[in-house]
Amino acid sequence: MTETAPRPTLEAVAARAGVSRATASRVVRGGDGVRGPLVERVLRAVEELGYVPNQAARSLVTRRHDAVAVVVAEPETRVFADPFFALHLRGISKELTAHDNQLVLLLTEGREDHARVGRYLAAGHVDGALVFSLHLDDPLPGLIRRAGVPAVFGGRPGWADGADEGAAPTVYVDCDNRGGARDAVRHLAGLGRTRIAHIAGPLDQTSAVDRLDGYRDVVGEADPRLIAQGDFTPAGGERAMRELLQRCPDLDAVFATNDLSAAGALRVLREHGRRVPEDVALIGFDDLLPVAEQTDPPLTTVRQDIEEMGRRMARLLLDHITGGAAPHPGATILPTTLVRRASA
What we know:
Order of helices and strands: HHHHEHHEHEHEEHEHEHEHEHEHEE
Largest sheet: 6 strands, parallel
Number of helices: 14
Radius of gyration: 25 Å
């Protein structure tokens, strides 16, 4: 059995640097009021000794844990299969890491998971929460409000602010889903397509509702047979495309609610002998490069900066945690861009 070397203490750092314990503590905590040469001596001692601050003791003083919960309201099978979530988490992780904060990932699939997340947040393990992919009947907003932790949401909320008396207004980051959808459908119409179908996303999520509304903004009173329900997955896109071809075999364009749905639709169109874009023009949404650039033909799509959305969410929350003031209530809406490739 090997013996573990004793953990370097703050007192040892102070002795090595030739300063008082209080001075060493201020430097380690990042406090002001210490002259530059002393800061350098303390930091050099920290490096030489391999000193690591005791986070538990630090939390007692600062009441902060330097940890943020990232709550994704989806099962792990969806989160780890969809590149959207990887990009979103990468943006969040980069911002948290840059500010020396830990990311604690919490996924929810059922009511038991919601209760578990609520208990964890209420226990004070983290300084705040970043929450995205919510569904309209999701209890998470109420659980987070009752836990009393600051939160920033990804996506336009589907609940009314102030539903609970004294509740803080919702802070969220989203992209211009409706405007991006309008751009996609206008592009299809500009190509001379007249039977433009839409594969919708799950309508218990506001991003899918906004994209459907953007489609309707352009086509007006759409033939209901030209709208089929998907679920943001390739399999859902396949099912919806088969349904559309059965109902409206003369359709000449499809706007899919996301790139994964478009990829599924593309497979079904090929199975039915429909050429893309000659017979049917196809547009997705997201610009997930592992999907959009590798389909055949490459996918025309609406780009949203998913990674930047994650960074903005984390930045808003950290500003609140470190500055003490609540984030400005309301929306941060990022623009979208139509990226033209070969499918439309």
